[in-house]
Amino acid sequence: MKYIRINIEKVVQAVVLVMIATSCSDFGDTNINPNASTTPVTAALLTSALTDVASSIGAYQSESTLFVQYLSQSQYPEASLYSTTSASWSDYYLGPLENLQTIIQYNTDETTKATMAQYGSNNNQIAVARILKVYYYRLVTDQWGDIPYSQALVKNLQPVYDTQESIYTDFFKELKEASAQFDDGKAVQGDILFGGDASRWKMFANSLRMLIALRLSKVAPETAQTEFVAAYNDAAGHIRTNADNAVYVFLNDNNFRNPWSANFDGRDDYGVSNVLIDQLKALDDPRISGFAAETSDGEYIGLPYGLTRDSLINWTAASDYSRPSAKMLAKTFPGYVITASQMLLAEAEAVANNWISGDASSLYNDAIKASFEQWEVYSDATYQAYISNTEISIASSDTDETLERIGTQRWLALFPNGLEAWAEWRRTEYPALVPTPYAVSESKQIPVRYGYPNSENNLNKTNYDAAVARIGGDTHDIKVWWDK
User: Fold this and answer.
1) CA–CA distance, 70 with 274 (Å, rounded to integer)
2) Which UniProt keywords apply (predicted)?
């Protein structure tokens, strides 16, 4: 069952903005407050855009955690049976993307840029907004494929759908230009991710650029290598240690808590899947205690993935299973946006692909160590035993085995970030996930994209039809451009 959460604070803000933006001409200036601001507070818009990072890494995107079999549904298994055919993207376009475009607009316009400079230098605000736009647009295009991009966010109600290839090309340009745009002026205000630290934003941009490049490893390997190497060698650096992790900080407050905490507050709709639990057990992986809670019998038992409702009712009536751990459900559990383990695995794959020089095995082991430390399960003895396991360690001479094991460790290290794990599984096909035998979709396969929002066929039909014809249909079985 999919739950829609409404942020009351944002709704109130939206209503206020609409009231400010529209006036009742029949009453002349009667309803105009001469003391009210007619321009936005860009620091507040940035904070709002950054709060939406939580939805990109948390439980709001619960379907993707089901597609990659991190979780299983305990009561209403429709999403696990691949019943979802389309999804709305309005939370992206009408939320963070619109806020970020407004920041860019008001810091570019000659009539408003001087006023906006009180919230950080114009260049610094624009640079941060451009980087974040790439972050959010990547989430959108990776879920739907070809999307409105070049004509979006400019008061065009019927924008064309740009090809994913052209969007990815523009991502590289935007990240490079944005990183170069930072100046020595006033730091950006309202930055709850990096506190206005331009060096952290540049490091984040390089890390994002490397991950975007890796996404193209199969469809455009030459471009992928060029962009990856350029970002890898950039003087600003990229995330390589847990101290550099891009982390969204949640608070011990119901209004600003970890969304996984909110998703399990008073509800019991999910358990950790048997697919994940069985893999962790097979590898004797200490992260199991960070990912999952023990049952009342002191065991880790996964909830079977993809059962029908009747089968679920019968199974759960007779068996206990592991829910997510208390650590993961704590209000202050950190929201990991990009991590050292994720980036070290990216480097290991780049070495295996002969893009960069290095030791794939050492980078792979360092990534595992970083993940263990991130989940606070590291000890030298446990780590050494783990990487010595012949089912885990890699031999650089066997490229296929190396890529498979990197892919499996990436799947483990990304938990519980379902959106990123779903994209990486589609790109690499690792680990070898098996679809539920009870799938209700026509293909019976794990979805590889979302269908376009239902409203597009009515509100933007010409451009919708053109996009559907170009990609070959509008089902969740049509692969996005980079998924080869």
Assistant:
1) 9
2) Lipoprotein
